[in-house]
Amino acid sequence: MASSIPYLLTIITFLPLLGSVIVMLVPGDGAKKWLALATTVVTFLVSLLLWTNWQDGYAGMQFVEDAVWFAPLGIRYALGVDGISLFLVLLTTFLMPIAVYFSILYVDKRVGAYMALMLLLETAMIGVFVALDLVLFFVFFEASLIPMYFLIGEWGGQNRVYAAVKFFLYTFAGSALMVVAILIVYFSAGTFDIVALQSTPLPAVVQTWAFLAFSLAFAVKTPLFPFHTWLPDAHVQAPTAGSIILAGVLLKMGTYGFLRLAMPVFPQAAEQFGPLLATLAVIGILYGALVALMQKDIKSLVAYSSVAHLGYVMLGVIAMNAQGVSGSVLQMVNHGLSTGALFLMVGLLYERRHTRMLDEFGGLWASVPVYTGLFLVVAMSSAGLPGLNGFVGEFTIMLGAYNYMPIFAVLAAAGVILAAWYLLTAFRKMAQGEITNPANDKANLKDLNLKELAMVVPLVILFFVIGLFPNLFFDKINPSVEAMLATRTALIEQATAEQMPALELAEIVVTEAK
Amino acid sequence: MNSALTELNLNAVLPALTMVIAAAVVILLDILNRKGKTPTLAWLPWVALVGVLATAGVSIWLLSQPVSSFQGMAVSDERAQALNLVVLTGAALAILLSVRYIPTVNLQTGEYYTLILLVSAGMMMMGAATDLMVVFLALETFSLGLYILAGLSRISRRSNEAAMKYFLLGAFASAFFVYGAAFVYGATGSTRFDLIAMRLFEGQADVALLAIGVTMLIAGFGFKVSLVPFHMWTPDVYQGSPTPVTAFMSIGTKAAAFAAFYRFFATALPTEQPTWGMALGILAVLTMTLGNLVALRQSSLKRLLAYSSIAHAGYLLVGLATATPAGIDAALYYLIAYAFMNMGAFAVVILLERQGEMDATGNRLKGLAKRHPQVALLMSIFMFSLAGVPPFAGFFAKFFVFAAAVQGGYSWLAAVAMLNSAIGAWYYLRIVVDMYFAEPSEETRIEAQRTSIPVAMTLGIAAVFTVALGVLPWLWTGLVQSGAVTTLALR
Fold first, then answer.
1. What pTM did the predictor assign?
2. pLDDT digit string (tens) for A108-152?
3. Angle between the B132-150 and B109-128 helix axes, to the nearest 10 degrees?
4. Which residues of A fall below an 8 Å CB-CB distance to B?
5. How far is the alpha carbon of B465 from chain A, nearest alpha carbon, in Å?
6. For burial by CB atoms within 10 Å, which of A358, B137, B258, B422 has the most?
7. Do B458 and B97 touch, CB atoms closer than 8 A?
8. Can you give the pLDDT at residue B6?
9. How many CB contacts within 8 angstroms connect chain A with chain B?
10. ipTM of the complex in this document
11. Is A449 left (phi over 0), alpha (psi -120 to 50) or beta?
């Protein structure tokens, strides 16, 4: 058994907060930048201890911490990770240094505040994934709004204030009812403990209302069609690093919420509303892909592709079978890496040309071959080419969806084709053909330098690692997923068993009559 | 004879008594000053502050020794002392805000601090009262003082209007209150809360008379905490009064009236809960919805905060609809959180004011972050907290109050309240948007004579506690450690 390190999760969660305070206090932009980067790198290295000290095959929560936070209501400061949250934590700590390093290279307006907000955001995001108490979860979930709101509003594009306010109000209003639902759940189950709630039977009425309230909050965050309208605005206006984090991590809070809370805690309601949610997810897949096909701005193309990709994740979560859920967990990570990388590539191009319009480009193969080659790999990873990470996740989800309801798998497969179509179209317009615009000439456009490669290459390596050795990850994910599903099945069976006696009696009467 | 003497335990009124003594000291120093014997004018706020701190000490000392006194007309228990601490917080911060401010409005500083202390004494009695007559006495004590304070600026027409309006409507409300108390007496034969409850329990009360009486009492209370439809005076009085007075009023009056309101409903009318619970729930919905919707359209910061305070009265009323002990403790947490965040917001308004006026328009916030980043940062904390975003105190305030409502079976009310807080987020957020994302204009400036160390202290204290209570809510509940909150946990 690997040794557990005390307070490891607290350290990982609050190290960025500490860094943020220090960044605010030290003078000098240079110092602030490098301190912020150092904080994220150290946080990443520390978080690797979760991987090295992982107890393989153990399904429950690891590195658990538990302390009383507010005794009168039984609110606890409880942290822990299992196979489901482990990779989301690692994804967060892995993407942060990349996002911060990109900002070091390209952000020069009020750097101190920018870096401090990025670090605050990291604390909130990690907190969401490691919280085991409903109230603690909600506090982190909501607290993430404030730094993101400022990042979009202050450092975003033309229409940034509108996008920032829309982002804040949409998500704040979406989760308003969740507070009431959390309280209703507490007063009928008697605990805020997320793990305990997963094995506590709740009355049907409570399940229905609470499931709807939780779903609304998470559907806005994910975003699930038709609650997605804030996302393109927020993405297009956000600064590049903000987009990487928004797509890479923040959206996963929604799908993670579904997976950790809405689906297992309210199983009957989840079964009842499952087909509806799955329909919305499939509409999202097709709609997002079709709208992405029509985009002229590469960044909004990537934004809409996010709507489509998260549809797959949702489909796997809703299927609630081993393949679907495991695939979803991995696909959350994949989407974080691929879309994060896409936003990074778009950002790198934007910093060179100060435009993101597809029409402005063409023939980049000839002028910037390294950039274009890497872009192709990233796009293929996002499109789900076998051998790369996206394929593994999507394929597993399809299996799960087929076992759930075949029609959804068939429709979702159409989305895969569309994804290849819009990504290849975008690639063709950017990279192939003749150079029509002199700004794209070899003389005017520089290829990636070493600093920039240092950000892109780690992502690309991970694409191949996940694509070729998915079991490195599934081995850690699967036990927890299976345990969660087993608990859930037991809960459903228990609930049906309570209704059974009447039926059994009727059966006995019938057989005796014969 | 002997037993009557032993029953006369002064602990129930000791904090108020301390406050009155402090007020007497302040007025004495003022007289000495006017006779030219000692130049004590500059000391007065600090003497008043020492009085407030001494009273807070007395309150904390009394926390652990509950007692009922004056033949059951007043008590000293954890809730009474908790209310005292809320009022004292408001008074202390208001005094700090007044140090520089009041001399610019009115030269009678001695009267001012005396009145603040006497008004606080009245407010504190509201929390200790267990008899409608004592409630009425306390109500009048603090109301009369507030009428004068509202009109402190004798040359300002707005201030005169505010005082006049407040006085006339307040007198009406008091009349309603007394009339209601008379009806309750007629229906039950007593004005003491426990005796009313006993008569009701025994079924000896005239329910129709009681209903009329309670309706009138709600009108009287509703005026003080500005519930819709008794809220009309609020924006004008808030705008016209000197800003430290407004700040004090927004916290003290609300806290005191709610404390008495809660105690009356929870101890005198527990058997009638199903009847008035629904009525109060509907009042709460009206109050917060109207407050939030009208606040969206305000350009004056003080009017905006006035409507926001109406909305917050609505949220507080949500907990009252059930009037469980848990609800009372939740409301007290709400009040202390509100005291800090609202005081902070008013301190920023004071910074933005100009000489000779007692209000600031919202456009002065535009681009404030570029000129005064520290002030903008603190103001954002207060705004996010008022909106109820974690990890600030405003979030747990709402969470606890709505928890009491859900526990009492009023989930729909909690849901309406949460949707309302999403509307509220819009105008609090607009202030943050203006401060950070707008370009500074001619209007965006803080005049040098507005800034002073006491105002900075207020801002600092308010911000520290807004964050600290949000992260560690047990700081407050641990201090006033009420047995009632724990019953909630035992479920």
1. 0.90
2. 788 888 888 889 999 999 999 999 999 999 999 998 888 888 888
3. 160
4. 69-74, 135, 138-139, 142-143, 145-146, 150, 153-154, 160-161, 164-165, 168-169, 172-173, 176-177, 179-180, 183-184, 186-187, 190
5. 17
6. B258
7. yes
8. 52
9. 93
10. 0.87
11. beta
